[in-house]
Amino acid sequence: xxxxxxxxxxxxxxxxxxxxxxxxxxxxxxxxxxxxxxxxxxxxxxxxxxxxxxxxxxxxxxxxxxxxxxxxxxxxxxxxxxxxxxxxxxxxxxxxxxxxxxxxxxxxxxxxxxxxxxxxxxxxxxxxxxxxxxxxxxxxxxxxxxxxxxxxxxxxxxxx
Length: 160
Prior knowledge:
This protein has three helices and no strands. The protein is mainly alpha-helical.
């Protein structure tokens, strides 16, 4: 099997390991949100951002390998068909494992998002009950305050 095929399989394994790390971070994020640990939540989000950069680099590598293999727009599930016969089994296993790891990550990430959204709704309800402005329609989020009025002493009269 050529080096390009081996490199592609190594990339799939690396993607899988990163997805497992993201799944673990999603679990930690949900736990940090449930325990109101904002410092831990901030640290987890920084780690996720760093992993995002790693995924961008992997995406560039993937595109390069796919062009070398002549499989530019081919979906992942059909990639094993384009491997040499002796490597198709390995490729099928790698693709199936990566798909499972992605499904596991989505499950964890969706759970963490649900926890965070619930806590944001609770915070919004507390702010509203204390007399603060409620969240705008469309869900919770940050709305910047209106700019302050300029004091009259700082205004210039240009009438002549």
